[in-house]
Each structure stands twice: as C-alpha cells, then as structure tokens.
From TrEMBL:
Protein name, UniProt field: Phosphocarrier protein HPr
Alphabetized InterPro entries for the sequence: HPr-like (IPR000032), HPr-like_sf (IPR035895), PEP-util_enz_mobile_dom (IPR008279), PEP-utilizing_PTS_enzyme (IPR050499), PEP_util_AS (IPR018274), PEP_util_C (IPR000121), Phosphohistidine_dom_sf (IPR036637), PTS_EI-like (IPR006318)
Limits of the HPr domain: 159-248
Entry-linked PROSITE patterns: PEP_ENZYMES_PHOS_SITE, PTS_EIIA_TYPE_4, PTS_HPR_DOM, PTS_HPR_HIS
EC number from the UniProt entry: 2.7.3.9
Signal peptide: none
Pfam families: EIIA-man, PEP-utilisers_N, PEP-utilizers, PEP-utilizers_C, PTS-HPr
UniProt function note: General (non sugar-specific) component of the phosphoenolpyruvate-dependent sugar phosphotransferase system (sugar PTS). This major carbohydrate active-transport system catalyzes the phosphorylation of incoming sugar substrates concomitantly with their translocation across the cell membrane. The phosphoryl group from phosphoenolpyruvate (PEP) is transferred to the phosphoryl carrier protein HPr by enzyme I. Phospho-HPr then transfers it to the PTS EIIA domain. General (non sugar-specific) component of the phosphoenolpyruvate-dependent sugar phosphotransferase system (sugar PTS). This major carbohydrate active-transport system catalyzes the phosphorylation of incoming sugar substrates concomitantly with their translocation across the cell membrane. Enzyme I transfers the phosphoryl group from phosphoenolpyruvate (PEP) to the phosphoryl carrier protein (HPr).
Localization in the cell: Cytoplasm
UniProt KW Cell membrane keyword: no
Enzyme class: transferase
Catalytic activity: L-histidyl-[protein] + phosphoenolpyruvate = N(pros)-phospho-L-histidyl-[protein] + pyruvate
The protein's required cofactors: Mg(2+)
C-alpha cells in the first residue's frame, strides 16, 4: 500500500483534513503522515509555516510503503516539499501532487486503501475536483484584462496573469529583480514572469533568474500568480512595474570621453566628476578557483551542504548589516547583493552539486557562480554589468568556507588611486574618500555600481579604461572623472595645475560670498550617524533633520523617551550650533500605517506633513515634548519647523504650540505655492522659514516629483519657482525673518548663487555637496548674486535661466 504525506502550514488544518479522509475508510486505511508547521515559538505556540526537513523525515518514515504521495496546501508548502526531496534518504518512489488539498487527500486515501499503485492514486487525487466542477456552473478564471486566463489543463489553483510593460530603461536588472523577488507574497503566490519577446520564463523568487531573462525597458512581460492572494500580489507587482522600480528619473549616462591621446588610456568613460592624482594601488587579487577534490562520501554530503548554506547566510547577513549602516545608493546596492548571497539561482545549484555529486562546498559555489556569470554575460548590456556582483558574492562565500580573508580594497593610510578590473558593490560601498582619491576600472559602464557609488561618495571615477591594470602599483596617475582622462606619470606642470585648482574636496566650515556676506552652509540629515558625518564634513549646523527615520517601518509612534534619546544623538554632534528639527513629514512618498490614510486618491495633495496632526494631534504633541526635552539637555541651538504648511493660520498655530512647549524658535517650511504667495503675512507669524524646494517645485509645476517623465518640469530653475522663491526672499527682508533653503536646489552651486541673490540667508544640503557650493559662493559678491538672480527670474525657461545666471557671473 502507498503512504501519504500531508504538507500544510497549519498542523490543525492538516490533522482535521486527515481525520476527515480516514473517516472515509474506517478499516484498512493507508498510513497518512502530517508534516506541518515550522517549529514552535519560545512560548511553545506553533509557528505557521512549513519545513523541508520535517517533510523529508515524514517521507523517510514511509520508506517501507510502495510509494509516497505528497499533498501540499499553499505556495511555500510546495517549495518545502520540493526541497525535501533533496534531503530524503529513503529510496521509496515519491510523487508530489498538484491535487487540491482536501479533495485530493480524500480521493487519494480512498484509492490507496483499495490497494492502487502510486500512479493511480496520484491520478485519482489530481482529478478530485471533477465532481465538484460538474456540480457547479463552470466559471472560467478571467485575467485582469478581461480575457480568459490561459491556465493549465486542470488547475488546482487557477493562475491569474497580467501583461505589463517594463517602464524603466533597463528592465529587470539587479535592483528591480531584487525588489520584485522580495515583494510580499511572491513566493506564496508562485509568481512567474514570462518575457514576451523570447518566451523565457523565470520564477520571481529568484533575482538571478529574473535578471537572466535579459529584459529591457519597453519589453512586455506576462506576470502570473496563483492562490487566493494572486490578485493582491499582482496589484503590488503592477504598481512596482508602473513606478519603473523607482528608476524613471535615472540620470542620463555621462557622455563618452574624448578620444584618448598619448599616455592616456583607450576608451575610458568619466562617470564621477572631479580630478585627483595619486599612486596606484591595485585591488587585492580575487581568490583562485578551489581545487577539485575527490567526491565527498554520501554520509557527509548533507552536512557539507548545510555548511555551504550557513556560509551563504553569514555572508548575506553581513552584507545586510553593512547595508543598514550605509546610506543612499550604497545601501540599496548592498541590500541587493545580500539578497544575491542567498539567491536560490546560485545557492540551490551549489547545494545540489554537494548533495548529488559530493562536490566540495567551495568548489560547488565556484562552479554554480561560474554558470551564472556565463548566463549574465551572455545576456549582455546592463545585465552583464552584474557579473561583478556574482563574483563578489562567490568570493565572499568561498572565503567564508575556507577561512581565508576576503579580497577587496586594501587599507592604506596614504591617499591612493584604486585600479581594478571592476569593483564589487561591497568594495565600492566601503571605500573611504579620504584615502581613495580616485577610481579607475577596466570594466563597468556608466550604470555600474562603481559609477553609482563613486558619484554618491564624491570620488572621481573613470570606467572602461582598458589596460589600466597594466599600470604598476606605485605609479602616479592623474584621473579626470569628468572627461574620463587617465594620465599615467603626469608632468610636474600637470600636477602643479591640479594643486592650483580650487580645493572642492573639503569645506572650511564657513560659508560666505567673496565680499564676506555670510551664508550659513548646513547639512540635511536623517539620523545621529549622519549628523556626526555632517559635523566631520564641516557643516555649520543641521538645516534639516528629517525625523521620519524614527517612525518609518514601525507599527506605532516611538515613545517620548526613545525620541529624546534619538534627537539628543543628533544635537550632540553640533554643540552650540544650529539644529533645525522638522516635525514628522508622513504621507505621499513617506506613508506611515499608523498616521496616514490608506488609499488616498491623491496622497501628495492629501493628509500629509503638518496636516496629519489634524487626526493625530497626540503624535505632534509627543514629538514636540521630546524635542523640547532633548533641546534642554543639549547645548545645540534647536529650532523646530513644520512641513507642508499652506495657510497663515496653520503656521501661527504651529508656532504658538511650539512656544507653549518651551521651544523658543519655531518656523515652517515653504513647500506650497500658497505659503510662498502668502509669505508677507506668513513670515510675520513665524520665527524663520525654510524653503523646501523639492516640494515647492512639484506643487508649483503640478508635476509629481517622483515621475521621471516630468523631470524637466520638476526643475527648481523653472522661472515660476524662482519667482516664488523671490517673493519669499523679499518678504524675509521686509519682515526681518530668516529664510533658508533645505531642498536639493541648495546643492546646485550655480543655483545656490541665485538663491542667495533672491534673499536666502542659509543653505542646507547633503554634506557631500557643501565643498562645491562653498567654493562657488566664495567666487562671487553679493551684488553679483543679485544680478544673477534678476537674470534668472526674468528668463522664460530653466535653460535660459541657467544661461543668463552664468552670463551674469561672467560665463
Ligand atoms: C523639500 O521638499 O524640499 C524638502 C526638503 O523636504 P522633503 O524632500 O523631505 O520632502
Ligand atoms: Mg518636502
């Protein structure tokens, strides 16, 4: 007689189904074992889930039967059952059945009790819905487009399918693939992606499989999902695809470098501006391929495979931790690499080699990565640029397995120019701009991680510099990250010219125009660590503390005590200096489940920023209490401002509330045209104002700031925006109210000059932008700023505004 294993997320569900099935065959029934749950919590309660090792143990227990039929409930039960086959030691034949869980179990139990073979029992289970279908009117599953879904012949769980067009320029490359794979419910709904152009299909749980599709912007894909959550999962995926995976406003690729000459390297591309010279240091060499050892004995294979999985997960955890402590692009890239370290496309292939062929774990990882590298390289284009990521993950896992040190950027006290074939994301993410003054790689392109991270770190970088590795360590090179020129052994005159160039790598900590008009240059930060970095970078204070960092990813607001501790951490980095704390700016692009409304028709125009206090005055109250308490405990000169203010009444009420809380200096952000137009009255009601030019631009131009297609409208150089800023600047002068800028506009050196000319007295920006802005301001007088502003405001387009401002400053 055959045996049956029932794999379920819930032991209760499985046991009930089994007892129902066995009740059909009171005597002589088959052995039916339950493999359910995923262990127990500390309090002894069962964890809902499935566990491949439990499934394998159940199959092994039925090794004396004539065959084992495995029935599964939802998506990950299927994955566990498939994985279990790798662990099974019994030689009994096993069939994984796609039959419906309850009906299939009943049918199989009855048929097995009659002594049927495994194939017969399996067939019976598969057709278990026939009776039910006959009784009910047939209801064809319908796809979102209203067309009948092309489902399998006898679908146990009908698949829903949607045709979507990839909107981001580069399709499912590493980051979008990782985002898609980690979308909630993708595994459970067994989401598959089919590229229409080639017909290739990939499971959405595997980023590498998705990348292997070789998709690009404009490609149509069919995304299908199964199970009761299929529609919800597809909705989320559709939104992700529609948003272009957040890449619709990718900067255009820098243009190729001019033709190389003389001692310059061939075909290089400058990808991160700036010029620097220094002695060459090569990246520590990659690991050699592990030697092919004799096959492991079969009783050691399971343990070896576990060791491999353990090493992969350690590498993944470490990378994820580094992602946590990084910022911006580095954070995203490290997180995506962490995901790749446990990607089934890589790790499953490696563990299968260990289990099936007894391959040594390090060698198995090496070979599996090799296959993946060939696949990605074969796809070409942007996908091929991800080869460096796979090599990086491979080396890290192999190093972990063999106890060797990880190859990477050598640590040097003296400044150097790093040369490498290509940099792995994890290497670039940990580069210290203080020691690594420039980067040159033989491979990579403008969109490679090296380029992205170098830009975010402000390190001049040149990629695709073929032959660079031939430059010996210690040789001096001059790197121009704008033109892509790499000059080997530059002349004394070239080095002298570099030394004479204005130093834009550091900020002295004092912003002013050439004629001494002070312009406080401060930093935008979102945490205590960022505040410390800002202090190290010379920022004169914090012009914008985005407090969302404390609230995001939580189910409820942090306690007052927790907030006090966090704010003190920021304030402590600037003793005696200005720290402007912005109250919670939830809503629109920063939704918070316990604050913002779900399903707002138009969240950017909805209950966001200060408006959330209408529904949750308690959250604002607690936050102001915490800020006041933190300010009292530190010496920083703390000011508080509210985001998304539209009326004079809102501004006045906020300021009054702050004053009541003991916060002496309170103001508002000018982010709406209404606030800007009302500036004369509004500024009279506050202690200071700060222009949030990101939002002010999107609301003035009625162009969503996250829609890349509208990028040319979302430009703070738009004369309409400049005119509003001018209104606020003028009102600041007449009411003697300080007006600052804390949007991205302040980080544009030329625009910074115009803003000062429009009456802005302080600029706050990402700390890395400070040196260039300070340098530019130091070359112009206040009068010149005003002339540039007059010209820009009189222009009829952003391009004309830039050109006229530049011309006013002498070109
Ligand atoms: C702005 O809108 O310019 C601003 C600084 O706020 P945020 O970018 O956080 O919305
Ligand atoms: Mg804003």
């Amino acid at each position: 007689m055959i045996g049956i294993v029932v794999v379920s997320h819930s032991a209760k569900l499985a046991e009930a189904a089994v007892s129902l099935a066995l009740a059909m065959v009171p005597s002589g029934h088959p052995r039916v074992l339950v493999a359910a749950g995923a262990g127990v919590e500390r309090d002894g309660s069962a964890i809902i889930g499935t566990d491949a090792t439990v499934v394998a143990a159940a199959i092994d227990e039925l090794s004396d039967t004539d065959g084992v039929l495995v029935l599964m409930d939802l998506g990950s039960a299927v994955l566990s059952a498939e994985l279990a086959l790798e662990f099974v030691t019994a030689t009994v034949p096993v069939t994984l059945s796609a039959a419906p869980f309850v009906e299939g179990l009943l049918a199989a139990t009855v048929r097995a009790a009659g002594g049927a073979s495994l194939a017969e029992v399996a067939a019976e289970a598969e057709s278990a819905l026939t009776a039910k279908r006959g009784q009910l009117a047939p209801a064809e599953p319908v796809s979102a487009a209203g067309q009948p879904a092309a489902g399998p012949a006898a679908p146990a769980a009908p698949r829903r399918a949607r045709r979507l067009v990839l909107r981001n320029r580069l399709g499912l490359h590493a980051r979008p693939a990782a985002l898609l794979a980690s979308e909630n419910g993708v595994g459970a709904a067994e989401v598959q992606v089919r590229l229409e152009r080639t017909g290739a299909v990939a499971s959405a749980v595997s980023p590498t499989a998705l990348m292997g599709l070789g998709s690009r912007g404009g490609d149509a894909v069919e995304v299908s999902a199964a199970g009761s959550q299929a529609d919800e999962v597809l909705d989320r995926i559709e939104a992700l695809v529609e948003s272009g995976f957040g890449e619709l406003d990718e900067p255009a690729s820098p243009s190729a470098a001019p033709a190389p000459t003389g001692r310059e390297l061939a075909q290089p591309i400058g990808v991160s501006p700036g010029r620097a010279a220094g002695p060459v240091v090569h990246l520590a060499p990659a690991l050699d391929a592990p030697v092919e050892a004799p096959a492991l004995p079969s009783d050691q294979r399971a343990l070896a495979a576990e060791r491999l999985e353990g090493a992969a997960s350690t590498v993944s955890t470490r990378l994820a931790e580094r992602a946590e402590s990084s910022e911006g692009a580095a954070r995203d890239i490290l997180a995506a690499t962490a995901l790749m370290a446990t990607d089934p496309g890589l790790i499953d292939a490696a563990t299968a080699a260990v289990r099936d062929r007894g391959t040594e774990p390090a060698r198995a990882v090496w070979d599996a990565a090799g296959a993946l590298i060939d696949l990605l390289a074969g796809v070409g284009g942007r996908t091929a640029e991800r080869v460096a990521d796979v090599r990086d993950v491979r080396d890290r896992i192999v190093a972990e397995l063999s106890g060797r040190s990880v190859p990477g950027v050598p640590e040097r006290a003296e400044p150097f120019v790093l040369i490498a074939r290509d940099l792995a994301p994890a290497d670039t993410a940990t580069l210290d701009p203080a020691s690594c003054v420039a980067l040159v790689t033989e491979e990579g392109g403008p969109t490679s991680h090296t380029a992205i991270i170098a830009r975010s770190l402000g390190i001049p970088a040149v990629v695709a510099a073929r032959g660079a590795l031939a430059i010996a360590e210690g040789t001096t090179v001059l790197v121009d990250g704008e033109t892509g020129r790499v000059t080997v052994d530059p002349s004394a005159a070239e080095l002298a010219a570099l030394a004479m160039a204005p130093d834009v790598s550091a900020f002295t900590g004092h912003g002013a125009t050439a004629d001494g008009h002070p312009v406080a240059l401060m930093a935008n930060v979102g945490s205590g660590e960022e505040a410390q970095a800002a202090a190290r970078g010379g920022a004169e204070g914090i012009g914008l503390l985005r407090t969302e960092f404390l609230f995001l990813g939580r189910a409820e607001a942090p306690s007052v005590d927790e907030q006090v501790a966090a704010y003190r951490g920021v304030m402590a980095a600037f003793p005696g200096r200005k720290v402007v704390v912005r109250t919670l700016d939830a809503g629109a692009d920063k939704p918070l489940p316990f604050v913002t409304l779900e399903g707002e028709e138009n969240p950017a125009l909805g209950v966001r920023g200060l408006r959330t206090a209408r529904r949750h005055p308690d959250i604002l109250d607690a936050q102001l209490t915490a800020i006041a308490e933190a300010a009292a405990a530190e010496t920083a000169r703390v000011q508080v401002m509210a985001p998304m203010v539209a009326t004079v009444e809102e501004a006045a009420a906020f300021v009054e509330l702050c004053h009541r809380k003991g916060i002496a200096t309170a103001g508002v952000m000018i982010e709406t045209p209404a606030a800007a137009v009302s500036a004369p009255e509004l500024l009279a009601a506050v202690d200071f104002a700060s222009l949030g030019t990101n939002d002010l631009t999107q609301y003035t131009m009625a162009a969503d700031r996250v829609v890349g297609e509208l990028a040319e409208l979302n430009d703070p150089w738009q004369p309409a925006v400049l005119r509003l800023i001018g209104t606020v600047g003028a009102a600041g002068a007449t009411t003697r109210t300080p007006v600052g800028v804390c949007g991205e506009a302040g980080a544009d050196p030329l625009l910074a000059v115009v803003l000062v000319g429009l009456g802005v007295s302080s600029l706050s920006m990402a700390v890395r932008a400070l040196p260039r802005v300070a340098q530019r301001l130091g070359t112009v007088t206040l009068d010149e700023c005003r002339r540039a502003a007059e010209e820009a405001v009189a222009a009829s387009s952003p391009a004309e505004a830039r050109a006229r401002a530049r011309a006013a400053l002498g070109g």
